[in-house]
Design goal:
This protein starts with 5 loop residues before the first helix and ends with a strand. It folds into two domains: 138 residues, Cytidine Deaminase, domain 2 (3-Layer(aba) Sandwich), CATH 3.40.140; 214 residues, Dihydrofolate Reductase, subunit A, CATH 3.40.430. It is 28% helix and 25% strand. The longest helix is centred in the N-terminal third of the chain and has 15 residues.
């Protein structure tokens, strides 16, 4: 195992911070940051800015110029070794005369996955892997899941009162939480490739389902609508970007009505109580190169996703309010014992003004 110094950690932390600047714009590629260091001084910085643009290593080498020769490259993921939309980064590292590479993690893409490291070592470049590995893997947890499990990483977002209500009995939910919580919700949209709601949410709230943090961000808007009740005048059709509707109906006229205004309609299997099959949904999204899916509601969709065991990570925004009878987000869950309850792991609690965010990974009891 390599021995890391505090200086090594400092430079890798900077590379991780650079990588996050590509958040929301690089998928299905990973977020990657790179720092070139020579004689204890940073001589080049770079990050992958958007899908199809130069990779982080290339940007850092360009930034360093002649100073790249004889330097150490700190990079958050192993350099790629194949030519895709951009040339192989291993070739650029070799040609720049970089003497040492420190990578936080291997690239789980089967086209790389250690081959980049071997390529560099064959050229006499010293390579060490594993510095701040956990942080790097968490930064790209969607990409890692997509590559290893061949499905999107599924994120659930719920805003509720202290008694678990996501809306009043009449369906009013604007706004349960304050501005800081809603701003954090927009950050989740920026981080995701697709956003999903049920048709009841569209009928009640008429949302646009867009990301307001970055005008470049084009989310795939996904609607679950078993019987195609989605109105053609919905505001989500007035915004640029694709809309994908999953349904079980075979009523061709309803399908054509939505297709005429630009929606894509996909039929999937229907299960008991009219719920659409989550495996079919995730398979379709995977084949569309969706690495991360954000589920926002409503209660039927939230509870069915939890019941189906497809949620990887959950964000629960809790407002200091008690509504009494209303729309309960867990209404569709089966009864459980304390031993078999759905549980969050690696939990963080964050104060957002008067609201509390509870964030964690969903532990699936087996």
């Amino acid at each position: 195992m390599p021995t890391w110094t505090d200086t090594d950690r400092q430079f890798m932390l900077e590379a991780l911070e650079l990588a996050f600047q590509g958040c929301g714009l690089v998928s299905p590629n990973p977020m990657v940051g790179a720092v070139l260091v020579k004689n204890g001084r940073v001589v080049g910085r770079g990050y992958h800015r958007r899908f199809g643009s130069a990779h982080a290593e290339i940007e850092a080498i360009r930034d360093a110029g002649k100073n790249a020769r004889g330097s150490t490259l700190y990079v958050t993921m192993e350099p790629c070794c194949f030519e895709g939309k951009t040339p192989a980064c291993t070739n650029a590292v070799i040609n720049a005369g970089i003497k040492r590479v420190v990578a936080a993690m291997l690239d789980p893409n089967p086209r790389v996955n250690g081959k980049g490291v071997k390529c560099l070592r064959r050229q006499g470049i010293e390579v060490a892997v594993g510095l701040l590995k956990q942080q790097a893997q968490r930064l790209n947890e969607a990409y890692v899941t997509f590559m290893k499990e061949h499905r999107p990483f599924v994120i659930l977002k719920v805003a509720s009162t202290l008694d678990g209500m996501i809306a009043t009995e009449e369906g009013d939910s604007q706004w349960l939480t304050g501005e800081r919580a809603r701003a954090t919700g927009q950050l989740l949209r920026l981080m995701a490739d697709a956003i999903l709601v049920g048709v009841n949410t569209v009928l009640k709230d008429n949302p646009r389902l867009t990301c307001r943090l970055n005008a470049e961000k084009k989310l795939l808007r996904v609607i679950l609508d078993s019987n195609l009740r989605l109105p053609v005048q919905s505001r989500l059709f007035q915004e640029p970007g694709p809309v994908l509707v999953f349904t079980a109906t075979r009523q061709e006229e309803r399908i054509k009505r939505l297709e005429r205004i630009g929606a894509q309609v996909i039929r999937v299997r229907q299960e008991r109580k009219g719920r659409l099959n989550w495996q079919d949904i995730l398979n379709e999204l995977y084949h569309r190169q969706i690495t991360s899916l954000l589920i926002e509601g409503g209660a039927t969709v939230v509870s069915s996703a939890l019941e189906a065991g497809v949620v990887d990570k959950a964000y629960f925004f809790q407002a200091p309010k008690i509504l009494g009878p209303g729309r309960l987000f867990s209404i569709g869950l089966k009864p459980r014992t304390l031993r078999t309850a759905l549980t969050l792991k690696d939990v963080r609690h964050i104060e957002l003004g008067d609201d509390i965010l509870t964030e964690g990974y969903v532990y699936r009891f087996s």
